[in-house]
Amino acid sequence: MNLVAVASWAFGVAGILLGLAALAAFRxxxxxxxxxxxxxxxxxxLRLGVDQSWATIAGTVAVIAVRRLITRDLNMxxxxxxxxxxxxxxxxx
Length: 93
Description:
- This protein is an all-alpha fold.
- The protein has three helices and no strands.
- The protein has helices spanning 3-26, 29-50, 54-87.
- Helix 1 runs antiparallel to helix 2 and helix 2 (29-50) packs antiparallel against helix 3 (54-87).
- It is elongated and about 65 Å long.
């Protein structure tokens, strides 16, 4: 194993740990999943630099597709939240 392959494993483990830490800190599962998928994407792209097989390419493409779906869901969630805030009546205390 060379240094890039070891770094890709380190990014994978860091993704799991940071995903759990984000879940514990923010209590928002989709945000924690997005953090974890970003680290998995970094690991997959590093892995592509070492191993250019079709299985590695397919795995990286799968992570990208899942990440795009999660990101779209998060954007819709926050957009709905800000739209609800804009519709809320404003009161002065």
